[in-house]
């Protein structure tokens, strides 16, 4: 090695050493904890004597506060009950031909003929399935929740735009609202407003507000300075400039926020049904799942899925212009013709009601009344092929779930696998892990070696037997080195809150379940996204499937998993994967398709094979986009924890759900904040990691 090369390398060696020293110290602490955990069991199982009754204190404060402010909230509930009843009666009064004509007209104006045909199919299916009244009740809830969320979100977005100092507080509140499970804040709503449809309306409105806030701030921030200056030069006052210049310019982004707000409100219909208790489509799904009537649950779940896709396409069509330009139907449906057609639909409704005031115009027996045979057939299918479903479940349980939860040391026992781990096998495992970490250090650097050692440790001990001081310090050290000391302190405070409230076992269950779900989603979704990036046909096939999975409410994913695999952790894993698999598919495909063509051509001209081009050129350049997909996958997996608790998990989601059943506001708040803490911590870590990868790519390719 020449002298200049040695001089060039010496700063890198000095820069890496300080970051590696804390990990070496943590490694020594880990070995000590593993050696002493038999003598000091509190290193693994946090003693109950050390826990703090924080939930009890919160309940004591809540009881006093609720007793004082409950009358005002009950009055607000009574005030909102009138428009709720009015909306339900109005939609029940409208005959289905008039509703279909109005929706098809809006679909033609929004996106053209294809959406109009889909609207006819969706409404026809709802009609024939026998869920028209329930769907109208659901639509009434959405139609009232969306304006409340839109107005509230718009006002809060204006506040964040006009007062930059308040924006960090507002963004923190939005992070909590979007990461705390809906079940957690259903508890205080239930205590304040009581039980009934209005509580579901308020819960939906609260849940759907954050997207509008974020899109309002984003749209106003993106208004070009030249447009604002032009408004000022025209003599506009500040108010005129805002309402007549900035808001119209930001309107497309505001409409995107309206679309996301509508979808969020619709996704809450089943959760709202838990405390709403009125005859809507969410209640139908929930009641059929409780009765194990899989035919009815699939039928009603499909109603929600089709409604979600239809509303999503309608609203996004008005928010964004089509990439290929407006179709002939969109051009023909001018604003004047749109207003005339909607007026004709209303006139048709009046004529039908005057001519047949008592007629429902609904089928006498819908498909829902004929699903008894389908239920029997599905139960027979599950019974006849129980050997297959049980085999799949047991294979994943014994080969993936148990080793990750209790570790190889706990699962490799004669009672479970037929053998135990003798010292020679343990020594071979340690040697293998050390060899892999050495290979990772040689190929990718010391950080990859630390990751390999951590993976080997977790795979051996499992999440349950991992000493909690080691876990907390490792995550805090990682957060401090990636994002700075503030996030490291945030990690220590968050895990400390979980620990002293006695929720560490539930945290461990959540971590291992979400970790496995995210890894499988990355593996399967990444493979599908890579395939779609290299095949237009596969991309066209996957697009409607991803659209359907992305617009379905979370509860719907429990139906097929519960039907074939019954209750248990494997069922929860399947439901989480179905909900979280869309981001890796979409982001991997998007990242690979948008890699610079000249870079790919240069690599191919150097003689690289397609696999080498993918692994050594495309994936490294697409890494920032893929990291965003990983971020969204983790967020989706964590958000499904409370829903998956319905099928028998014992994680933080189950703690939230049990607290809802007991109206325990303290435990619900603590468990909900614990899930929110995990989501925020993962989000900040991955955002910094993605930002670092993006900066590295920019340095690698300045052009």
Structural overview:
The chain is mainly α. The chain has three domains: 80-93 and 131-290, MetI-like fold (Orthogonal Bundle); 94-129 and 292-357 and 371-384, no CATH class; 501-703, Orthogonal Bundle (MetI-like fold), CATH 1.10.3720.10. Helix content is 81%, strand content 0%. Helix 14 (281-290) runs antiparallel to helix 15 and helix 20 (423-444) runs antiparallel to helix 21 (446-461). The longest helix has 40 residues, at 54-93. It is globular.
Tell me the total number of β-strands. Answer: 0
State Rg: 28 Å
Helical coverage, percent range: over 70%
Indicate the mean pLDDT.
81
Looking at CATH, which topology of the largest domain would you report? Answer: MetI-like fold
The N- to C-terminal Cα distance equals 31 Å
Beta content comes to: under 5%
Give the helix/strand class: mainly alpha
Largest sheet: none
CATH top level label of the largest domain: Mainly Alpha
Shape: globular
Question: CATH H level of the largest domain: which superfamily?
Answer: MetI-like
> What is the architecture of the largest domain at the second tier of CATH?
Orthogonal Bundle
How many domains? The number is 3
Ranges where pLDDT stays below 50 over 5 or more residues in a row are 1-16
Count helical runs.
Answer: 33
Describe how the helices and strands are arranged.
Elements: H1 3-36, H2 54-93, H3 96-110, H4 113-129, H5 132-162, H6 167-179, H7 182-193, H8 197-207, H9 209-221, H10 225-233, H11 238-249, H12 251-267, H13 269-276, H14 281-290, H15 294-319, H16 328-332, H17 335-355, H18 372-384, H19 386-411, H20 423-444, H21 446-461, H22 468-483, H23 485-500, H24 504-533, H25 536-551, H26 558-565, H27 569-580, H28 582-593, H29 597-605, H30 610-639, H31 641-644, H32 652-662, H33 665-700
Helix pairs in contact: 1-22, 2-5, 2-8, 2-33, 3-4, 3-15, 3-17, 4-15, 5-8, 5-9, 5-12, 6-33, 7-8, 7-32, 7-33, 8-13, 9-12, 10-11, 12-15, 13-14, 14-15, 15-25, 19-21, 19-24, 20-21, 22-23, 23-33, 24-25, 24-27, 24-28, 24-30, 24-32, 25-28, 26-27, 27-30, 28-30, 29-30, 30-33, 32-33
């Amino acid at each position: 090695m020449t002298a200049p090369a040695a001089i060039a390398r010496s700063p890198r060696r000095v820069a890496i050493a300080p970051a590696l020293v804390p990990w070496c110290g943590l490694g020594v602490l880990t070995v000590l904890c593993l050696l002493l955990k038999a003598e000091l069991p509190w290193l693994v199982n946090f003693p109950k004597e050390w826990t703090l009754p924080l939930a009890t204190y919160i309940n004591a404060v809540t009881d006093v506060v609720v007793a004082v402010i409950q009358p005002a909230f009950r009055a607000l509930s009574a005030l909102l009950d009138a428009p709720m009843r009015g909306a339900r009666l109005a939609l029940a009064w409208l005959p289905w031909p008039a509703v279909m004509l109005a929706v098809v007209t809006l679909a033609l104006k929004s996106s053209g003929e294809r959406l109009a045909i889909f609207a006819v199919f969706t409404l026809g299916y709802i009609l024939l399935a026998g869920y028209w009244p329930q769907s109208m009740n659901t639509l009434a809830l959405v139609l009232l929740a969306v304006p409340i969320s839109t107005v509230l979100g718009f006002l809060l977005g204006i506040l964040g735009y006009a007062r930059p100092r308040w924006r960090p507080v507002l963004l923190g509140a939005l992070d909590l609202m979007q990461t705390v499970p809906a079940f957690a804040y259903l508890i205080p709503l239930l205590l304040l407003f009581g039980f009934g449809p209005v509580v579901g309306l308020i819960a939906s409105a609260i849940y759907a507000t954050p997207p509008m806030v974020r899109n309002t701030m984003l749209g106003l921030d993106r208004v070009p300075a030249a447009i604002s200056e032009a408004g000022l030069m025209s003599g506009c006052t500040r108010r005129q400039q805002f309402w007549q210049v900035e808001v119209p310019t930001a309107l497309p982004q505001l409409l995107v926020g309206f679309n996301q707000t509508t979808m969020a409100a619709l996704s809450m219909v089943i959760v709202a049904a838990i405390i709403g208790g009125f005859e809507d489509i969410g209640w139908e799904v929930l009641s059929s799942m409780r009765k194990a009537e899989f035919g009815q649950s699939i039928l009603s779940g499909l109603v929600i899925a089709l409604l979600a896709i239809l509303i999503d396409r309608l609203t996004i069509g008005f928010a964004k212009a089509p990439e290929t330009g407006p179709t002939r139907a969109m051009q023909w449906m001018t604003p004047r013709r749109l207003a005339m057609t909607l007026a004709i639909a209303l006139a048709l409704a009046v004529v039908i009601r005057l001519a047949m005031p008592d007629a429902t115009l609904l089928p006498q027996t819908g498909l829902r009344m004929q699903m008894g045979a389908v239920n029997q057939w599905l139960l027979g299918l599950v019974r006849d092929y129980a050997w297959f479903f049980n085999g799949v479940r047991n294979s994943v349980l014994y080969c993936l779930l148990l080793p990750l939860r209790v570790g190889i040391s706990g699962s490799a026992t004669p009672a479970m696998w037929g053998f135990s781990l003798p010292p020679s096998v343990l020594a071979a495992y340690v040697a293998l892990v050390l060899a892999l970490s050495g290979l990772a250090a040689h190929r990718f650097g010391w950080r990859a070696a630390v990751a390999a050692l951590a993976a080997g440790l977790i795979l051996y001990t499992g999440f349950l037997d991992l000493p909690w001081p080691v876990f907390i310090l490792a995550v805090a050290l990682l957060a401090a080195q990636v994002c700075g000391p503030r996030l490291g302190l945030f990690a220590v405070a968050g895990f400390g809150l979980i620990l002293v409230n006695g929720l560490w076992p539930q945290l461990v269950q959540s971590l291992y379940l979400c970790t496995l779900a995210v890894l499988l989603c990355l593996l399967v979704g990444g493979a599908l996204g890579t395939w779609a990036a290299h095949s237009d046909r596969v991309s066209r096939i996957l697009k409607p499937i991803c659209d359907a999975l992305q617009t379905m409410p979370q509860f719907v994913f429990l139906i097929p998993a519960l039907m074939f695999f019954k209750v248990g952790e494997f069922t929860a894993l399947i439901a989480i994967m179905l909900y979280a698999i869309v981001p890796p598919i979409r982001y991997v495909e998007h990242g690979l398709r948008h890699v610079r063509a000249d870079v790919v051509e240069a690599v191919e001209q150097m003689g690289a094979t397609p696999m080498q081009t993918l692994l050594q050129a495309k994936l490294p350049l697409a890494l920032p986009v893929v990291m965003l997909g990983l971020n969204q996958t983790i967020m989706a997996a964590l958000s499904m924890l409370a829903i998956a608790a319905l099928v028998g998990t014992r994680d933080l989601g189950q703690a939230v759900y049990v607290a809802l059943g007991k109206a325990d506001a303290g435990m619900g708040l603590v468990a909900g904040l614990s899930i929110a803490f995990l989501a925020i911590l993962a989000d900040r870590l991955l955002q910094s990691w993605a930002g670092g990868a993006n900066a590295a790519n920019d340095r690698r390719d300045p052009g």
